[in-house]
Design goal:
Elements: H1 14-25, E1 32-36, H2 42-49, E2 56-58, E3 86-88, E4 92-94, H3 101-105, E5 106-108, H4 110-116, E6 121-123, H5 125-129, E7 133-137, H6 144-156, E8 158-163, E9 166-171, E10 175-180, H7 189-194, E11 197-201, H8 207-222, H9 224-230, H10 232-248, H11 256-268, H12 275-290, H13 298-308, H14 325-334, E12 436-444, E13 448-453, H15 464-471, E14 494-501, E15 504-510, H16 518-537, E16 541-548, E17 551-559, H17 562-570, H18 580-597, E18 603-609, H19 619-633, E19 636-641, H20 651-659, E20 662-665, H21 666-669, H22 681-688
Helix pairs in contact: 1-2, 1-12, 8-9, 11-12, 11-14, 12-13, 13-14, 16-17, 18-19, 19-20
Length: 689
């Protein structure tokens, strides 16, 4: 087993280390979500935590880590008698993003269950993580069906495995720690709320601190055991402090004043539900125990708010986690009168949580004042949602003169997106086999059963009726004499299921002068933002191609980060000619490359334009020829018609016909549109066929 990097040797990242240590003191806090860019010691710190966790007593030979003093009466390896057990280190179990359901919850041998009536159960990762740490790297990329299983286990403290009427239950209480890079996509809100604390990490911009990071990493890589030995005293000190804090924790007093501050803070920041209040209370109590105090102070409440509330304040996926610290201080001051005098301990004057850091004056003595990565800025840029109007809307539509330098034809300042709305469901026709999601029909491992087939490899979903039907004609020949069914491997049938897949939604947005009227472009951006929200909820990949002037560009290559697409959309400038054909050809090239990378993920092209085309000879005909490339490849498409005014040319509708797709106006795109039309890509493809 390799020697882990010492926890106390991690440079900076104060909030990250504090959040992990608070969960080690009080696992009831609910785990940690670590958000940050790559290469910021997220995984290193989490893996190092396991070496500091106190050892646990378990029943000897129990695969489910039952406590010897109070064994689980429903343990599959039980029943156990109360008595002395054996002591072992707390486990840290890593859940791979691509793990199967059976690997997570365990596997039942259905063949033995049918033929012998025996519950042969092989424990999964949830059983291994019981009373330890379950770590999910890149948790935002975890498949939905695994997220659902994690949510169930976290809510009930137990894992249930059911296969065709055969069920097994075992305890599964663990410290959930996840790391993620927000550039690769966000978490589902349900799972996000299950993490007690969240911290933002970033690489230091201080040269001295970066030098110390490199120095320590190189020293560790050269000789891990010698490097760990140099930090052994610091590790032992933190380990002893965790044990002492755990012993003190039950006697920490959470006074009425602190409770009022917690409740007032959660109410002031309008967090949903009551989980935030409970997590803040547990975190503040753990902070006091970590500092060796028996009373919770206002400083504990403040630090608890900074760790427990930022991720609970998001109102949509494009809101960055954050907390207005001025508002927090005002709230704590307003409701702090009743606990100003609680406790005489002098908190660390260096800032919130300063007393909560592990010792760092180690042998290498590098700089330790890391950036406060967990602290957030004030209101987000998106707080101002005022719409441009009046004079801006009266601007002439630029770019149609054909001269890039003509008045009004140059680049114009980006406008803000209009208010997003709930869109109609757009789906890809047919039956796919792509990654699990929520948009189009697909053959999946989860969903409604539609048939049966012989298993290819390991049997995962038994089709009981088909299996019995296959085995029944052979019972006499197999010498069946008892009540049990004589089942052979060849009789087993795998259930085929139909669910939903995520698609690649490629936006092709016209940013030319014909779209540049500010009110109009604001509405267009609002529509695209609404479609991005829909893509986030349906677990799609997204890409963004824009065209204006004389060229088209890939503003965002296909990615799972819908947030990144929203940022690029917000800063999108407008003006110039309308090279519609160039934009379509660029999008076709993006799909060609993406098909080589992920052939199973089917694309949906959303063209946002008024259908006009300028530049070069016969620009409209050229755009039509480019559009027919998509139709020839069978690519599903939607054209969002942005044409406005009393006189309409209907060019966007013609473009949709060339694409073999569906034309939809901005009004019809709304799910609550009075038109009430059921617009789907499938209907258009039927017409094209």
């Amino acid at each position: 087993m390799s020697t882990p990097f010492p926890f106390t040797a991690v440079v900076g990242q104060d909030d990250l280390r504090l959040a992990l240590l608070l969960n080690a003191v009080s696992p009831a806090v609910g785990g940690v979500l670590v958000r940050g860019e790559k290469g910021t010691a997220k995984s290193t710190a989490v893996r190092a935590l396991s070496a500091l966790m106190p050892e646990v007593d378990v029943v000897a030979g129990c695969r489910f880590s039952c406590a010897p003093g109070s064994p689980d009466p429903a343990c599959p390896d039980g029943p156990h008698e109360v008595g002395p057990g054996v002591r072992r280190p707390a486990r840290m179990v890593e859940l791979p993003v691509g793990a199967s359901e059976d690997r997570l919850v365990g596997a039942l041998d259905i063949e033995r269950a049918l033929a012998e009536g025996v519950k042969a159960f092989e424990p999964g990762l949830l059983a291994d993580a019981h009373r330890g740490i379950l770590y999910v790297d890149e948790v935002n990329l975890l498949h939905d069906h695994l997220v659902d299983l994690l949510l169930d286990a976290a809510a009930m403290g137990a894992s249930y495995v059911e296969r065709e009427g055969v069920s097994v239950r075992h305890a599964a209480r663990f410290l959930l720690v996840g790391t993620m890079n927000p550039e690769e996509g966000e978490l589902r809100p349900q799972l996000l709320d299950r993490f007690g604390l969240t911290v933002e990490v970033a690489a230091s911009r201080e040269p001295d601190q970066r030098v110390e990071v490199v120095r320590r990493r190189l020293a560790y890589d050269d000789d891990p055991e010698a490097f760990a030995a140099r930090w052994a005293d610091e590790e032992s000190a933190v380990r002893a402090r965790i044990v002492a804090a755990r012993e003190l924790l039950p006697s920490v007093r959470l006074g009425d004043g602190a409770l009022r501050q917690i409740a007032a803070t959660c109410a002031a920041f309008e967090v949903d539900g009551m989980r935030a209040d409970i997590v803040m209370a547990r975190t503040a109590t753990a902070l006091a125990a970590w500092d060796g105090r028996s009373d919770v102070l206002a400083e504990d409440v403040r630090q608890a708010a900074l760790l427990a509330l930022p991720h609970r304040r998001r109102r949509n996926p494009f809101d960055a986690p954050g907390l207005d610290e001025n508002k927090l201080d005002e709230t704590l001051e307003e409701f702090g009168g009743q606990n100003e005098d609680e406790g005489d301990d002098d908190p660390d004057p260096d800032g919130p949580g300063g007393g909560g850091q592990p010792p760092e004056n180690g042998p290498e003595g590098g700089p330790q004042d890391g950036p406060q990565d967990g602290s957030q800025e004030g209101p987000q840029d998106g707080a101002d949602s005022s719409e441009p109007g009046g004079d801006e809307a009266a601007r002439p539509q630029a770019g149609e003169s054909g001269q890039p330098g003509a008045s009004g034809a140059g680049e114009q300042q980006a406008v803000r997106a209009g208010e997003p709305f709930r869109t109609k469901v757009l789906s890809v026709p047919g039956l796919g086999e792509g990654a699990a999601g929520r948009r189009s029909r697909a053959r999946t491992e989860h969903g409604r059963t539609t048939g049966a087939r012989r298993p290819r490899g390991t049997l995962t979903k038994l089709h009981l009726a088909a299996t019995v039907q296959a085995a029944a004609p052979h019972q006499r020949a197999r010498g069946r004499s008892g009540r049990g069914l004589v089942v052979r491997r060849d009789d087993l049938r795998q259930a085929t299921r139909e669910g939903r897949e995520g698609n690649l939604v490629l936006f092709v947005v016209d940013a030319s002068g014909s779209m540049a009227a500010r009110q109009r472009m604001s509405a267009v951006k609002g529509a695209v933002l609404s479609l991005l929200l829909d893509a986030y909820q349906r677990r799609d990949k997204v890409g963004l191609v824009t065209f204006r002037g004389s060229a088209a560009e890939v503003a965002l290559p296909p990615t799972s980060s819908v947030d990144a697409a929203a940022v690029r959309l917000e800063s999108l400038p407008t003006g110039g000619r309308t090279p519609l054909a160039t934009g379509l050809l660029k999008a076709h090239d993006v799909l060609r490359v993406e098909r080589l990378r992920d052939a199973a993920r089917r694309p949906l092209v959303v063209v946002v334009t008024d259908g006009r085309a300028t530049g070069g000879p016969e620009p409209v005909a050229l755009a039509g020829r480019a559009a027919r490339l998509f139709a020839a490849d069978g690519v599903a498409s939607v054209v969002v018609d942005c044409e406005s005014g009393p006189v309409r040319l209907g060019l966007a509708g013609q473009l949709a016909g060339e694409l073999g797709g569906t034309p939809v106006t901005l009004d019809e795109l709304r799910a609550d549109s009075i038109a009430g039309l059921v617009r789907d890509v499938q209907s258009s493809n039927r017409r094209a066929a």
